[in-house]
Amino acid sequence: MVNVSSRKLMSRLRRMVAPETSFSDEFDGDTLYRLTADHILLLQARVQLLRRISSLYGL
Fold first, then answer.
1. Mean pLDDT, the chain cut into blocks of 10 residues (59 residues total)
2. Fewest CB within a 10 Å sphere: which of 1, 15, 35, 43?
3. Which domain of life is it from (predicted)?
């Protein structure tokens, strides 16, 4: 039986590898800056999660 933390981890991993949402509209500078900052924060969260996983499995 899969426990809750394993399901949460798998859910997070699926979201991590899901394709990014693409936009077809034009952006102004502020919107592009905000989206870039958000993307950087997401990448940092992914790296942190992968570090936690690798430390759990001794990688």
1. 67 64 64 81 90 85
2. 1
3. Eukaryota
d(CA 37, CA 21): 15
Please compute Rg for the chain using Cα positions: 15
Question: Residue 42 CB: number of other CB atoms within 10 A?
Answer: 13
DSSP structural state of residue 1: -
Domain boundary assignment for the chain: 28-58
Tokens of 59: 């990688």
Residue 46 has which token pair? 């992914």
pTM: 0.49
